[in-house]
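Deliverable D4.2, example record:
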Amino acid sequence: MLTPRHRAESTLAGQLVFAMKWEGIDLAVLARLFEAVGADPIRAFILATPTGAFARRVWYLYEWLTGIELDIPDPGKVKVVPIVDGDLQFALAQGRVSSRHKIIDNLPGTPAFCPMVRRTPGLNAAHAKQLDQLARQVLGRVRADLVARAAAFLLLNDSKSSFAIEGERPSGIRAVRWGQAIAQAGMHPLSPAEFERLQAIVIGDSRFVQLGLRTQGGFVGVHDRETGDPLPDHISARHQDVEALITGLVAYGERTREGGYDPVVAAAAMAFGFVYIHPFEDGNGRIHRWLIHHALAAAHYNPPGLVFPVSAAILRRLEDYRLVLETYSRPLLPQIEWQRTAAGNVEVLNETIDFYRYFDATAHAEFLYECVEQTVVADLPQEVRFLEAFDQFGDGVQQIVDMPAAHIELLQKFLQQNGGRFSQRARSKEFAALTTEEADRIEQLYADAFGEAA
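Output generated by the structure prediction step:
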């Protein structure tokens, strides 16, 4: 696939330099590579070109990933270079300088959790749209009371949608309570305790669910009806690794926020990383989507007081959502060695922690950007237009007949359900008191006010 001029040398050094130059950084591969070859070949490669930019990057990454310090002399006065090539992968805008290695650590995370995201044409185009500024422009032209009403509706809609994705129909109280938790996203620092608080809100009745971090294996899938054997679609992180992974995820959130990382890309890595780890027995999916709100709100990406209804956008694209989840979970399955437990659960037999802290989140970031764009370009303006039309319709109805607000809401719903016309039931029961002339004028009001919004 490459000309002789571009082909990499068949040496460790040649392959490392080629990969970092053209393909970016794959931390999972590097971690396994460093473990397999040991320190001596890496040290020899660095000493062969001690001032080389790629040698210094490998030097830093070896120590970063293994925790083993190499005996390498100071490279002297050389140009400081970033670890991550920002043209190939998303990186921190403000990294930390390592004077020892003469590099800038602009990795988005820490060794405990650091998904990487490639710069694709789609992600570059999405980033350039500045959807956060577009949302502020949309709301800047709207009355404050309408913004508040739109925010309330979108918040409750997102809460209900998040339950619907899980196949649940929560009571009104549960939906409102979870909506309140979503509204508070970004207000409190992340921590294992905060996640456990959210799980308690999500579950509600915990009599049949063990709250807190898992103390046994976990998987997503079903059981064979005859044998009871697990049939996993995804195997969660080992319960022994969960606490370290969640702590790393929390640190990743702080580092990306403070370092000027793309908020949507960070939200995707955190949220999908969380659901792959699957730290709880139940409630993981809704907290995974809550994390999207948290990351965006903490970075001040969404307008104050407004939640982007990302779950509603996901609900409309459930098949795409499933495929995005499977882009990583399905190829991961053959890499995990496991056996059935007596209780019908899974016990992971090999070391798997790197699979959950160093995954490629490119497809996840692309999907989330599409969902955020849908909320900004379509959902938010559509809700504002509806409220404006409803107010126009309600004011017009009051000019025709004195009617309580609750009746106006019912009237609007009847007309919406029947294409802007009174149904026979509505004319003969709920609104039988209207004259034919009043009913005709109200139908015209509805057509004038809603138009396309209807």
